Description:
Elements: E1 5-6, H1 9-16, H2 20-23, H3 32-37, E2 52-54, E3 57-59, E4 75-78, H4 83-89, E5 97-100, E6 143-144, E7 147-149, E8 167-170, E9 192-195, E10 198-200, H5 203-207, E11 212-222, E12 224-226, E13 229-231, E14 233-234, E15 246-253, E16 255-256, E17 269-276, E18 292-299, E19 315-322, E20 337-338, E21 342-345, E22 360-361, E23 365-368, E24 384-385, E25 389-392, E26 408-409, E27 413-416, E28 432-433, E29 437-440, H6 447-457, E30 466-469
Parallel strand pairs: 1-30, 7-10, 9-11, 10-11, 11-15, 14-16, 15-17, 17-18, 18-19, 19-20, 19-21, 20-22, 21-23, 22-24, 23-25, 24-26, 25-27, 26-28, 27-29, 29-30
Antiparallel strand pairs: 2-3, 4-5, 6-7, 8-9, 12-13
Amino acid sequence: MMPKLFIAASAFVLLACTSPELDKDPGPGTSSDSQTHWLKSCDSNADCGSLVCTCERCQKECASDLSCGEVSPYARCAEATSEAILSMCGEAPPTSLCVPGERTTAGPDAEPLDSGSGGAGSTGATGAGASTGGGGTTDAAMTTDGATTAGGSEAGASSNTGNDGPTSSSSGGASSTTGAGGASGTCDGDLRVVEGSVTAVTEAELEALRDVREITGSLTIGSLTHDDGWIPVPVASLAALSCLSRVNALTISNAVGLKNLADLDSLELLDGLSLNDNPDLESLEGLEALTSLGSLLVARNQALTSLEGLHFVSEAQSIAVQHNPLQNLDGLRSLTSVAGRFQIYSNRIEHLDGLSSLTFVGGEFVISYNQDLQDLDGLAALTRVDGDLSIGANDEIETVDGLAALTRVGGRLLISDNPVLRDLGGLHDLESVGNGFTVVLNEALPMCEAEMLRDAIGVENIVGEISIADNDGGEACAP
């Protein structure tokens, strides 16, 4: 059947309503200066840009939730005497302050953070970011929302006797008195396997994991919740996890003071990894033993400029990289395939050269709201996207030449709101589109460029509606 052709602005209105990736601005009214400094360590106001230095952190004073939009669309205003502020400051500051807002790890707006239990390729894990801590108690071995806090009377205990806690077993004979965290600082002693999921929100709870080599469920660090919202949790280091080699899913969220993952260098098997809202995290170095991942979520880490540490990962089930000041994706240079969704959303990357080995994306591939991205040349090896391909609201992209090897889009092809995009010739070898063709609202793109792309693919090879509208570039296309 011949697909319908719509050359009208109204067609995009209907399509945009079904595309949360493009109708979601990274945060109206937010300030990049404030976002960069919020919750970072400080000695004086001079370290905080437009914010103030309170409780040795760059803070945003507030009168309501609305005033917190400057630092993050995920922040809320908490009273000075609230538990959220007292936990962070130790005493009440002079005024109310913005804190990370109450939400699930997947975000409040159905933004593309789909790393939960329904994620592609899940192997029984909850997925990165699915374990949120749920207001975990600090009592030893107490169950909280299906997970348990790390506990026991002393670090290195060979078993946990709480009826509701996770079961644990030693990997060898009698438990060593020093274990993994003893004076030797090595992993030579008897190590435990913990059955179930664990939440650690205090240093003591982390210490209780010092002799653990495997957690069969998920491990959540940080993300303490109260009625006031998500409370940043001080985490100086992950040294207590230096012997951990296997965990189903790892979530580190709102961990203040954590700068790197160097102590996780024994970690070899991990189905899901979620790193979000960690204001001091600068590096992922320490994850070099990983060669494959289930789901990966890296979101709103305000000091993170590189993904180095993931450079041996060649395959992943799903990846979402969002709202970080990342300058490049070079840490993903060994990545060849993503079985499910891959989202690169609202980062400061200038190029995609780190994806030069990527050949296949099995789900949706989103490249949107990356205001400094210059081109798509790093995708020269990509031949197939089985889901939607969405390229939207990237301020500096002029061509799609980097996609010259792409021959198939199994879902919808959506190219929208790229203000300086002027040429679509790089997609002329595309052989089929499986669920709609939409090229709209690219103000520098001549209409004939979109029409030439449609014709190069062939309308008979496009399943679904074709929408070409409001591409306002006036120059004629080359013959």
